[in-house]
Structures are given as structure tokens and as C-alpha cells.
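Homework-ish question, so no full write-ups if that breaks the rules, but can someone show me the predicted structure for this set?
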Amino acid sequence: MYKVKVLVKRRPSILDPQGKAVEKGAFHLGLTNIKDTRIGKYIEFMVDTGDKAAAEKEVNDYCYKLLANPIMEDYEFTLEPADSEGGN
Amino acid sequence: MYKVKVLVKRRPSILDPQGKAVEKGAFHLGLTNIKDTRIGKYIEFMVDTGDKAAAEKEVNDYCYKLLANPIMEDYEFTLEPADSEGGN
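A: Not a homework solution, just the prediction itself:
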């Protein structure tokens, strides 16, 4: 069993209108030093296998096919063994 | 100038229907070992001040008022000096 944490970010060259909008809200609340806000995703999940290579392959497939949009987003992940009873 | 990275996660006790839905998609793609998917947010931005305490206060305000929903989400952040020309 592995615990996986994934970060999905837009490529630096792609505009982030959501970040811009939230930052404008911050400005109006008086938080005037905030710049360059970019909003991405953070995903956590478990992979229920004892084989690290198989787990990495499954994570890559999951990220590429579902979690990220490979046209405009990059992803990175960390994978670490989870201590679970009986889960290997 | 500080570079800030924020993670926003739903509290463990709060259901995550988006994660459940994406995971179902994974299952139908043959990724059958993925469990307990939870989807949160990852936000990066800069704080344009040289005073670390002021930067932290501004980041907390930003997270609490705009980035996270404090009723059902928790946030954590890291703040590190950014080497920028003339910032600071």
C-alpha cells in the first residue's frame, strides 16, 4: 500500500484567470502585497499494491488520464509506503 | 519578497464527492488499485514585503478569507524567501 500526493499546476506560459480573480478579491480586502497567484490541484490517494514499480505506473496513468490535463498542466507526485495493517 | 505555497484540504470527516467520482473513472479505465482519492487545492503566490511576520499574517488572512473555506477545509503553507532582483 502506498500513499500518493500529487500536485497539478498549469504550465507557466498558460494564463490563470481563477488566480487573477481571487487575487483581485484579496486586493479589495486590503491584502495588497499578494502577487502572481496561481491555483492548481492537490490530490491524495492510496495505491493498494505492494509493488512500487506497478504503483508508479498506475499513478502516472491516473495523473495523465484523469487528474491533469496534459495539454496545459504539469503534474508531480510523491509516493511513500503507508503503514497499514495487512495492506503490505 | 516571499514565495508561498499553500495546500488546502477538506477535513478528513468531510466527504469528497469529486474524489469519489474521479476514482470511479479510474476504476473504469482499469486502474483498480486506487483508493481514497481526495481532491484539494494547491496555490502558489508571491508576497511582496521584506518583513516575514507581516508576510505570514497576510498569507493567513488570504488563506482564511479567500483560499480556503474554514468551515470544512484546513490549510497549511510554506513561505520561503524568493531571490528576486530589487524585491525586498
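Now go work out the reasoning yourself. Hint: The domain at 2-81 of chain B is CATH 3.30.1280.10 (Mth169; Chain: A ,).
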